[in-house]
């Protein structure tokens, strides 16, 4: 082996002894699927204790998506230990050591499915090699299980703990030589395993970022300009300093970027309650002249003007759209829209930091810690290696904590009080008013139907937010949005409005809104063509296609879409829906997002003038293996209820004079327990690698709901949120 | 001002502003962080505790108002048989996702079972409607309460 190859192997796998007799395998395995992409490196820590317990490091932040349990399941399976031997520890953030640690986009499962199992298999191979050397038998003749190596020929067996020291001295195996288990032999993967922290949560143990305390820690609240981007002119700092309990009042000079730092005034006290109380005495003057002009009314007026006019730019144009509309037997037109909405994680944004001797240690609830490190490095002008980030359990992510504004803010505060730990905590009002919102948008749709009832052309004028000719974060429409790729004549075009609203990724970003408008509009198209939406979708998917998706994503496979559509129609007795009493209805939708194929049916009735969802049926295809069935079910249930909440709870963030009007759960409500329908979830297993469950069950429930409401009431819902007046007009 | 109260059966004395909410006294003065801050306005239920046996929003309860009272928090919930059954059902059904609201959910569920040992669906909805779960674990909150109460799901 050349030096270069050896070096490269060492980068992938190294093993070293830990103090105390434990064995630390530091396994870096390249991402197998992306041969042409730069290697994505993963490290899983496996420590074997003298009593044969195994400590497995979980590298992704836990936001309630189950990664802290699932990733160690993959390692434990291939390491061949019993789950009862395993203790799970959260790792800190360091992509150089652990590889990618972003918890978002339902990407953990597809990204980790092979490399994380290989991390377990590599450790197992080293332990087997150690036993083979000790017994002087070929490694291939040995078996493993329950954390032991056994020799079937002699009946001998030895624990991993007894082999650990010898195994650590052996050369690490080439990942390519490792054989992963046949799925038929899985003993942990495919078993329902409860969340690793569930017993501690139920006992009220301190687990979350907000619970973390350091000796001598001060609590901080932060005031910023209500209108996003306003700068600080003056503030009565001395008056605030005189308030009970206040230890420091500091000003922060921002860079004008929501994702890093706006100007602000921080109040620090030994008690968060007294810091926040002192805030009532703060009188700050802001210069918001550059951003006061932004408002919801203004966006609505601009969108109405732009809608009928020429778009700014094409997203995709195929075939001859004009000719298709000119020759259509029928043309269907409809305008759709949806509002900004907030993430509203139940644990308000917070972060703890200690700045000392030119370095900073941070305890963060971040889904995306390396982005936070880069922002803190820039804001504090620190080398990245002077920033240590510890990952705390997170009280809800939904994409909010892919942003790291709270990390930069607390770092900027802590840097002004060196040696004193600081916890910054948002009030709920801060949290709702300083979010990175799911952006609002408007869609002007047209569809052409041919004489044979087939969809021949599809046009969307998408009015979204952007600057410099590009949509802002999470405000894009993909050029591959269906039915693009399935019919010849497609025109997706966009126009951009300016805004000062920070925007961001909300669970199933893009898809949570685009599914609503496209599947609701296609339900209108299906009706005009004299068929139902499942029939229209099955026609579109009739020819087996693999549509490319780019960015190392697998292609969209029409056969998989067909599979879940047929499945949900059977589950929900779709053919029998006409037998429902008057005033009740079933609606269908299909959507593909985050590599998951989901078809859903909603049954709804009006109760006291508002929709009451009785039952939701969900059929999903996320590949060959459901890794942790109980968690997959819970993700689907939560996605469905969250989607229904986006439509029904009254969520709508509005803006006046550059600032958000809503502030708490009275004005930005969530679904509550009485709104919970029966939810039936089934998975269609197909021969594709497993993909994630954090998001793809959410998008189709909203169009399935509005399509059901059309079936029940005859009314088309073309904007959100749904309000009672929509059924009385 | 010193306020005397009993928390999970233990006598405590806190020297603080009588206007300080019980939530922040628990979290800051008594270092009991199981009770969670969610909204500060009595809208989400994350801070639910029992004051003399009745469910209360700790963020809306000034410490001065509960002097001499007996407080039960999530840290003491499993001391009672009903609390133990609830905790066991919550673990068996893996109710939490992010888990942040669950202390409040469990305290509301415990208050319900203390009052109504065999609740109906309507009883559960009424007792639990004040507790938000952003992850929407409501399906399992319902079934875990039924399991703890020994009523058919």
From TrEMBL, chain A:
<dbReference type="InterPro" id="IPR046867">
    <property type="entry name" value="AldOxase/xan_DH_MoCoBD2"/>
</dbReference>
<dbReference type="Pfam" id="PF20256">
    <property type="entry name" value="MoCoBD_2"/>
</dbReference>
<dbReference type="InterPro" id="IPR037165">
    <property type="entry name" value="AldOxase/xan_DH_Mopterin-bd_sf"/>
</dbReference>
<keyword id="KW-0732">Signal</keyword>
<dbReference type="InterPro" id="IPR012368">
    <property type="entry name" value="OxRdtase_Mopterin-bd_su_IorB"/>
</dbReference>
<feature type="domain" description="Aldehyde oxidase/xanthine dehydrogenase a/b hammerhead">
    <location>
        <begin position="203"/>
        <end position="290"/>
    </location>
</feature>
<dbReference type="InterPro" id="IPR052516">
    <property type="entry name" value="N-heterocyclic_Hydroxylase"/>
</dbReference>
<dbReference type="InterPro" id="IPR006311">
    <property type="entry name" value="TAT_signal"/>
</dbReference>
<feature type="signal peptide">
    <location>
        <begin position="1"/>
        <end position="34"/>
    </location>
</feature>
<protein>
    <submittedName>
        <fullName>Isoquinoline 1-oxidoreductase subunit beta</fullName>
    </submittedName>
</protein>
<dbReference type="GO" id="GO:0016491">
    <property type="term" value="F:oxidoreductase activity"/>
</dbReference>
<dbReference type="InterPro" id="IPR000674">
    <property type="entry name" value="Ald_Oxase/Xan_DH_a/b"/>
</dbReference>
<dbReference type="InterPro" id="IPR008274">
    <property type="entry name" value="AldOxase/xan_DH_MoCoBD1"/>
</dbReference>
<dbReference type="Pfam" id="PF02738">
    <property type="entry name" value="MoCoBD_1"/>
</dbReference>
UniProtKB/TrEMBL annotation, chain B:
<protein>
    <submittedName>
        <fullName>(2Fe-2S)-binding protein</fullName>
    </submittedName>
</protein>
<keyword id="KW-0411">Iron-sulfur</keyword>
<dbReference type="InterPro" id="IPR002888">
    <property type="entry name" value="2Fe-2S-bd"/>
</dbReference>
<feature type="domain" description="2Fe-2S ferredoxin-type">
    <location>
        <begin position="1"/>
        <end position="77"/>
    </location>
</feature>
<dbReference type="GO" id="GO:0046872">
    <property type="term" value="F:metal ion binding"/>
</dbReference>
<keyword id="KW-0479">Metal-binding</keyword>
<dbReference type="InterPro" id="IPR006058">
    <property type="entry name" value="2Fe2S_fd_BS"/>
</dbReference>
<dbReference type="InterPro" id="IPR001041">
    <property type="entry name" value="2Fe-2S_ferredoxin-type"/>
</dbReference>
<dbReference type="GO" id="GO:0016491">
    <property type="term" value="F:oxidoreductase activity"/>
</dbReference>
<dbReference type="Pfam" id="PF01799">
    <property type="entry name" value="Fer2_2"/>
</dbReference>
<keyword id="KW-0001">2Fe-2S</keyword>
<dbReference type="InterPro" id="IPR051452">
    <property type="entry name" value="Diverse_Oxidoreductases"/>
</dbReference>
<keyword id="KW-0408">Iron</keyword>
<keyword id="KW-0560">Oxidoreductase</keyword>
<dbReference type="Pfam" id="PF00111">
    <property type="entry name" value="Fer2"/>
</dbReference>
<dbReference type="InterPro" id="IPR012675">
    <property type="entry name" value="Beta-grasp_dom_sf"/>
</dbReference>
<dbReference type="InterPro" id="IPR036010">
    <property type="entry name" value="2Fe-2S_ferredoxin-like_sf"/>
</dbReference>
<dbReference type="GO" id="GO:0051537">
    <property type="term" value="F:2 iron, 2 sulfur cluster binding"/>
</dbReference>
<dbReference type="InterPro" id="IPR036884">
    <property type="entry name" value="2Fe-2S-bd_dom_sf"/>
</dbReference>
């Amino acid at each position: 082996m050349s030096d270069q190859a050896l070096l490269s192997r060492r980068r992938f796998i190294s093993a070293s002894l830990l103090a105390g007799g434990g064995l630390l395998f530091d396994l870096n395995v390249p991402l197998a699927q992306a041969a042409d992409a730069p290697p994505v490196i993963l490290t899983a820590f496996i420590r074997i204790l003298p009593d044969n317990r195994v400590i497995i490091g979980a590298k992704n932040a836990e936001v309630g998506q189950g990664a802290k349990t699932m990733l160690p399941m993959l390692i434990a399976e291939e390491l061949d230990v019993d789950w009862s031997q395993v203790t799970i520890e959260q790792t800190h953030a360091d992509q150089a050591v652990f590889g990618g640690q972003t918890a978002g986009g339902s990407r953990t499962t597809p990204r980790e499915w092979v490399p994380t199992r290989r991390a377990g298999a590599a450790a197992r191979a080293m332990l087997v090699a150690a036993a083979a050397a000790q017994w002087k038998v070929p490694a291939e003749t040995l078996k493993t299980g329950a954390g032991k190596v056994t020799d079937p020929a002699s009946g001998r067996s030895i624990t991993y703990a007894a082999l650990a020291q010898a195994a650590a001295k052996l050369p690490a195996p080439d990942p390519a030589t490792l054989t992963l288990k046949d799925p038929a032999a899985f003993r942990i993967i495919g078993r329902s395993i409860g969340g690793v922290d569930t017993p501690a949560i139920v006992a009220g143990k301190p687990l979350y970022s907000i619970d973390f305390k350091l000796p001598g820690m001060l609590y901080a609240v932060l005031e910023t300009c209500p209108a996003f981007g306003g700068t600080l002119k003056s503030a009565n700092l001395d008056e605030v300093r005189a308030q009970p309990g206040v230890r420091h009042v500091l000003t922060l000079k921002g860079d004008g970027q929501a994702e890093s730092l706006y100007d602000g005034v921080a109040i620090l006290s030994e008690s968060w309650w007294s810091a926040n109380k002192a805030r009532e005495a703060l009188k700050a003057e802001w210069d918001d002249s550059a951003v006061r002009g932004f408002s919801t009314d203004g966006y609505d007026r601009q969108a109405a003007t732009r809608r009928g006019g020429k778009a700014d730019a094409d997203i995709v144009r195929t075939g001859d759209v004009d000719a298709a509309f000119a020759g259509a037997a029928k043309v269907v037109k409809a305008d759709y829209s949806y509002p900004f909405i907030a993430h509203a994680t139940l644990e308000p944004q917070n972060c703890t930091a200690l700045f000392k001797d030119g370095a900073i240690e941070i305890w963060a609830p971040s889904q995306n810690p390396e982005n936070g490190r880069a922002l803190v490095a820039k804001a504090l002008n620190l080398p990245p290696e002077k920033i240590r980030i510890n990952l705390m359990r997170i009280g809800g992510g939904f994409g909010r904590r892919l942003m790291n504004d709270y990390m930069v803010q607390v770092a900027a505060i802590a840097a002004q009080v060196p040696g004193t730990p600081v916890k910054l905590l948002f009030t709920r009002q801060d949290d709702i008013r300083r979010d990175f919102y799911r952006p609002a948008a408007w869609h002007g749709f047209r569809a052409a139907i041919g004489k044979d009832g087939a969809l021949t052309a599809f046009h969307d004028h998408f009015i979204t937010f952007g600057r410099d000719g590009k949509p802002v974060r999470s405000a894009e429409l993909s050029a591959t949005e269906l039915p693009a790729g399935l019919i010849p004549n497609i025109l997706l075009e966009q126009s951009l409005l300016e805004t000062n609203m920070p925007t961001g990724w909300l669970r199933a970003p893009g898809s949570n809104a685009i599914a609503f408008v496209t599947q609701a509009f296609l339900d209108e198209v299906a009706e005009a063509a004299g068929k139902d939406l499942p029939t229209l979708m099955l026609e579109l998917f009739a020819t087996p296609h693999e549509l490319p998706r780019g960015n190392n994503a697998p292609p969209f496979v029409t056969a998989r879409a067909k599979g879940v559509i047929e499945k949900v129609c059977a589950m929900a007795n779709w053919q029998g829906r006409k037998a429902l009493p008057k005033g009740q209805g079933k609606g269908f939708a299909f959507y593909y997002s985050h590599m998951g194929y989901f078809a859903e049916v909603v049954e709804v009735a009006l109760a006291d003038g508002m929709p009451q969802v009785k039952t939701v049926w969900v059929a999903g295809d996320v590949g060959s293996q459901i890794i942790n069935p109980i968690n997959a079910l819970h993700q689907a249930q939560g996605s469905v209820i969250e989607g229904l909440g986006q439509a029904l709870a009254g969520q709508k963030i509005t803006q006046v004079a550059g600032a958000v009007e809503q502030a708490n759960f009275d004005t930005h409500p969530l679904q509550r327990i009485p709104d919970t329908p029966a939810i039936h979830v089934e998975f269609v297993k197909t021969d594709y690698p497993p993909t994630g469950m954090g998001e793809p069950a959410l998008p189709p429930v909203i169009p399935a709901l509005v399509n059901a409401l059309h079936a029940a009431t005859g009314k088309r819902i073309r904007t959100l949120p749904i309000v009672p007046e929509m059924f009385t007009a | 001002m010193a306020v005397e109260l009993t928390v999970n059966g233990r006598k405590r004395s806190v020297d603080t502003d009588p206007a300080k909410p019980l939530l922040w006294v628990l979290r800051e003065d008594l270092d009991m962080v199981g009770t969670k801050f969610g909204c500060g306005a009595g809208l989400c239920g994350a801070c639910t505790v029992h004051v003399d046996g009745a469910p209360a929003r700790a963020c809306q309860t000034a410490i001065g108002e509960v002097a001499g009272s007996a407080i039960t928090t999530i840290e003491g919930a499993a001391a009672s048989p009903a609390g133990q059954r609830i905790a066991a059902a919550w673990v068996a059904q893996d109710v939490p996702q992010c888990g942040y609201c669950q202390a409040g959910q469990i305290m509301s569920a415990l208050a319900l079972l203390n009052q109504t040992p065999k609740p109906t669906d309507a009883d559960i909805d009424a007792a639990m409607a004040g507790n938000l779960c952003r992850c929407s674990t409501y399906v399992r909150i319902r079934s875990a309460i039924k399991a703890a109460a020994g009523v058919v799901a």
